[in-house]
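Journal club side-thread
Mid-discussion, someone asked how the predicted structure for our own chain would compare to the paper's figures. Pasting it here so we can look after the session.
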Amino acid sequence: MAVNGQWCLIESDPGVFSELIKEFGCSGLQVEELWSLDESAFSDLKPIYGLIFLFKWKGGDEEQGKVLFGDTDVFFAKQVINNACATQAIISVLLNIQDPEIKLGDTLSQFKEFTASFDPALKGMSLTNADRLREVHNSFARQNMFEFDSKAAEKDDDVYHFVAFVPFKGRVYELDGLKPGPIDLGPYTDDWINVVRPLLQTRIAKHAATEITFNLMAVVGDKLVEFERELERSSGEEARQEVKEKIRIEEEKRANYKVENIRRKHNYLPLIMEMLKILSEKGMLLPLTLKVTGCPHSISKHLCLCT
């Protein structure tokens, strides 16, 4: 759990990210996970307003584009605190959306207006100190029995990082808070995804031999709203039934997300401690431990104090 103004680690999950967007006050959007870089995987999700890419960070990788310095119209904030890059990537997408149907809500609209004249470093500091955004982010903190002091990553530690890709005024940008500015990936004509797909394919292929931990999510339009509009336009009964099935699947998925997020946020530790206490009082804890571990000196199935 994060304390004293810190930001916690959160899970890279479309249900988590969709609720974050909703709790920020933004409407008309949701997040979908992509399992393939095939063109069909993207076409099924359109309109796509941005991509969020999670990968194992390794210093020294060269940018595949031109880093822009100074004033730019595209919103870009430097990352100045650990663990905030997931929310920072989401906000980088949201604040660069130009579709008038997407409503940012008061919190994000006020933040965007307040930081409009700031440089990337000051925007990053403002994001770090945005109480409401940090509160929503930290609502997904993993519950721990003990608080541990945070430490900087060691040389051999695995460090994961989120970056965002967005279309903005006819060009595509990579927004990486660890870089000095937004990375201009070039213009696009019909579909901005055609600029990003080969870049992601190259980046994944470069590390495919030693690394399999990648995650790609898309910030897309609200599918339930889209399906309801499609239902209104449908005329034949067969076509209407197909759309109703899409609506049913989407509603079921959201219901599952809701349950999963409740479980993520709930603190089960008091229940676990009380159950262990009761088992101990009844003399059942040690026999159960022995049944699982096979050794009276074990503190877990994989860790024995005898070795």
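Post-session note: Residues 301-307 have pLDDT under 50 and may be disordered.
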